């Protein structure tokens, strides 16, 4: 195996880990938000928000949730949400770095 193939695998793994971490954090954030707003079936909304290639589920959730004000969100839950937002940002950074590495590797052989 050449060193270039190893680099592709490394960047691919970084991108995959970043995408999985971002999707999981979006699921958890949507789940917490749906519970705080008193929506029925919060797990369904979490899965629906992270599904699809074009973020259509997340947009539908964000538009539909406006009818429901936040009922109860203690400070501990707010802190958890902030932590998850930061983790989602880190996952997104991993995804972008891995993808840019793959693109650059293909453009400049």
TrEMBL record:
Protein name in the entry: Uncharacterized protein
Keywords: Membrane, Transmembrane, Transmembrane helix
Organism: Mediterraneibacter hominis
Entry's transmembrane regions: 7-24, 44-63, 87-108
Keyword Transmembrane helix: yes
